[in-house]
Amino acid sequence: MAATDPALSRHALLNRGLQPARPFAGAGRPLFSVALFAFASGTVAWGAETPDDLCGELRRVDGLPVLRLWGTSQQRGYAHGYLLADRIHDLFGRFLADRRTSGGPEHYQRVSLPLAETTLRVRPIYEREMRAIADGLRDRLGPQAAVVPALGRPIEYRDLLALNALSDYLRPMCSSFAAWGPMTADGSTLTGRNLDWPRHEWMIGQEIVIAQRPSETPRRAGFVAVTWPGFIGCLTGMNERGVTIAIHDVPGPPADRLIGVTPRGLVFREALESAVGSDSADEIAAVFRRRRVLVGSNAFVSWPFDRAASNGAAAVLEYDGRRTEGDGVTIRRPGADENAVGTADQPPSSACLACTNHYRRRGVPAACGRYETLHDALHGRSMAGAKPFDAAAAWALLGEVAAPRYGSTKTADQNGSAVQLRPGPTETSDRARRSAAPADAPGVGADPGGTQTAAPRARRLTLLTYHSVVFEPNQRRLRLAVARPDAPAADRPPTTIDLRAWLSPHGRHTVREDARTGSSAAAGPENGPPK
């Protein structure tokens, strides 16, 4: 192609670590407004010709799309936008068409985007990555096809920021646990995670795996995240050191301030990239203390078990915008913290930990049926003579707390915020009964335990477990399933992803994943022949 080709010129500059002119670049900051479900079905032109020096490749493992990226933030962002251009474009268009979540194109442009300019703070390295995604998307589609009809313009940086604020407004109701040492078959760490969200048909089955290997200095850890196209934050992920992180929403008290906050997904990603030492919980807490957030979270963190270490293999970081308490972070570790549910016959173990959607240190522990199910299963396995955990047992336990079987509905106010779990077929805990307040209950507030009443003008939303993951941190391996319209993720057979292969530094055509064995061999692009 001639050097005067705009796409080639921009692409060549990005792959040399330079930033070309951005005629569509917005000056705003990320969106904190409506819930942005910019996720729809849509088909990437799989196998279309791509530049030889593009810093990314797209493959499938058992039908699951895996996007592999390497290089600088701009190079990785450009490849992300270029390879997923059609899918990102389609998802965003469907989001705008859904007035229940976007408010419609006029509201989105008139209210949401101006609000974005005054609320969020994003690290420059992530801003460069998102701007490059927009560049790659436009170059792949061309100037006319890149235009979003409802907006009359292409997708911009501000729109991608809106996507990355998703989890702060449509807040995940999730479950996680970990076991290690004497509680697992081989002594290594096993971590289970369900991500639950309201059911939207265009989101179901659209998740992808993104493997990122940054090249910037100082060195940051490469990682794999389970996510959606265009989303660069991390809600579920594991890094090259075997550290895992998973987000869980907590209906806690409001933040100390609403300006200068960062979307949680981007904070969680920064934490995962920074966790490279011997105590991952402390490293992640240090990142959290540097970043203000709008809403409460439990960050479930696990890492490879080391018999010589004394810090176990998991922790829960209770994290919110109350900087006056622990600078926003309280760490919950295994053992004594579990006494609130343990009994004389079934004492708490120091080799397991569970987490759902309530604080146990920053607030008075609330009853939660999913938490109790996880706790009882874990501590039952800690009793003398009990069969130790293996990956199959971990997968089965995720199925016991998956939605819609468990806790099938929740309420949300008209903007999608302040969500609460409603009792499902088997959700009978005190917490579930408390959260089932009528739609005209008093407004959202926080009691000393961090619980909330239902929001005014609430609507019922059906929950679904979108993805289920069993991490094996010692082996740098994960087993993943995503939901289908007729089944939550935990009811589907998992696909195995080997991080060592996908995060290798050797460039293209070095990995072919065999989902049945976890082995790797040379392979070409997603639908191309092995090379």
Summarize this structure briefly:
This protein is of the alpha+beta class. It is built from 13 helices and 19 strands. It folds into 2 domains: 129 residues, no CATH class; 326 residues, Penicillin V Acylase, Chain A.
Describe this protein's structure:
The protein has helices at 6-14, 73-83, 85-97, 99-102, 105-116, 124-141, 157-164, 264-274, 280-290, 369-381, 391-400, 430-435, 499-502, and strands spanning 56-61, 64-71, 147-148, 153-154, 175-179, 190-198, 208-214, 223-227, 236-239, 244-250, 296-302, 314-319, 329-332, 352-355, 409-412, 420-422, 459-472, 477-482, 495-498. The chain has 531 residues and is of the alpha+beta class. It has 2 domains: 6-41 and 72-164, no CATH class; 168-493, Penicillin V Acylase, Chain A (4-Layer Sandwich), CATH 3.60.60. The strands form 3 sheets. Strands 1-2-7-8-9-10-11-12-13 form a 9-stranded mixed sheet, covered by helices on one side. Strands 5, 6, 14, 15, 16, 17, 18 and 19 form an 8-stranded antiparallel sheet that branches. It has a two-stranded antiparallel ribbon with strand order 3-4. Strand 9 (236-239) and strand 10 (244-250) form a beta hairpin. Residues 1-9, 18-48, 339-347, 410-458 and 508-531 have low confidence and may be disordered.
Q: Under CATH, the topology of the largest domain is which?
A: Penicillin V Acylase, Chain A
User: How would you name the oligomeric state of the polypeptide chains in this document?
Assistant: single chain
Distance between the termini: 25 Å
Give the proportion of residues in helices: 10-25%
Based on CA inertia axes, which overall geometry fits? globular
CATH class of the largest domain: Alpha Beta
Radius of gyration from the alpha-carbon trace, in angstroms: 22 Å
- Indicate the CATH architecture of the largest domain: 4-Layer Sandwich
Strand-pairing-aware structural class: alpha+beta
